[in-house]
Design brief:
It is built from eleven helices and ten strands. By secondary structure, the chain is α/β, with parallel strands linked by helices. The longest helix has 21 residues. The structure holds iron/sulfur cluster.
Length: about 300
């Protein structure tokens, strides 16, 4: 039986990339977990949690700024070098455990590298160096320095929230929400990857904007009232150039988020089957064509026979 459907931006992106990947990740993997380690189906649960080196470095950088900001909000000094040292200690441990294959029995507790699972060449030391460089760059980011100057204004740091919008339950977790001191709010989004299309950024901004308007400005998106979009803006802070970009929220962003949610939900739910408490059939979620580039890095490529 499926637990109730919950929409999220990352699920939406996964579905847009490959419907079968979405089905394996959202519907098949939790069932596979229940079969337990040793059962052939358990591999889907293991594959669901595999990560690549770039994803690992991005996660570590997010965690490092999260510790720093939460410390500041709670009035604790969090020295930069202490954060780097702690991050690197954890990273070396993750690498060691992945090398040892611990993820094969419990992939949620022990992170596993895609390369270790698929037994492809992997330079762990190079991955550690990249991770350290990303962590240090994000800790030295001018936007982090600005946030640390006004910790009393920070409303949220990586808070996972579930809200209901336009009749759909959604999960979201903005990196940082901070009051601008003028009655509005800024949603900061750390970008640790190389490139991000404007479509992705703006669609996500619409969703975060509606969330902030709902939770902090107390206006429901579906109330029929005018939404105070002028009191919310996004701030994309990345490791490339420019270091940050202001993204004023517009009603078009809200409409884009709403249309993405309403348009994709029926298909993601298997056109109603999931609503009846059943797992939608795999056949409704086709694979993308053989040779497509997402298959080359997809963690489910063994299950899909696309190795
Ligand atoms: S291997 Fe390719 S077809 Fe299979 S789930 Fe991944 S992206 Fe989709």
């Amino acid at each position: 039986m499926a637990a109730g459907f919950t929409w999220s931006w990352s699920r939406y992106r996964t579905f847009a990339t490959c419907p079968r990947r979405f089905w394996l990740s959202v519907y098949a993997a939790p069932l596979a977990k229940r079969k337990g380690a040793g059962h052939p189906d358990f591999e889907v649960w293991v594959q669901r949690h595999l990560m690549g080196a770039a994803q690992w470095a991005g996660l570590a950088a997010h965690e490092a700024v999260e510790w720093t900001l939460k410390g500041a909000v709670e009035g604790r000094a969090v020295p930069r070098q202490g954060v780097v040292d702690r991050t690197m200690r954890q990273a070396r441990r993750v690498l060691e455990m992945s090398n040892g294959g611990y993820f094969r029995g419990d992939p949620k507790t022990f992170r596993g590298f895609d390369a270790h699972y698929y037994d492809v060449e992997f330079d762990g030391q190079a991955a550690l160096q990249t991770l350290q460089s990303k962590v240090e760059s994000l800790l030295d980011h001018p936007i982090l320095a600005r946030l640390l100057d006004v910790p009393e204004r920070i409303e949220e740091v990586e808070r996972l929230s579930r809200i209901r919008l336009w009749g759909i339950d959604i999960w979201l977790s903005p990196d940082v929400v901070v009051a601008d001191g003028k009655g509005g709010f800024v949603v900061v989004d750390w970008k640790t990857g190389r490139n991000h299309s404007n479509d992705v950024v703006d669609g996500q901004l619409g969703l975060y904007g509606v969330y902030v308007i709902d939770r902090l400005l107390k206006v429901r998106a579906d109330s029929g009232r005018r939404l105070p979009v002028d009191r919310v803006q996004g701030l994309m802070a990345g490791l490339g150039e420019p270091a940050f970009r202001n993204l004023p929220l517009a009603m078009e962003d809200v409409f884009a988020a709403r249309d993405a949610m309403l348009g994709s939900t029926p298909k993601m739910r298997g056109d109603g089957l999931e609503r009846d408490g059943e797992i939608p059939k795999m056949e409704g979620y086709p694979k993308i064509p053989p040779g497509s580039s997402p298959c080359s890095w997809c963690s489910f490529r063994r299950t899909c026979e696309r190795e």
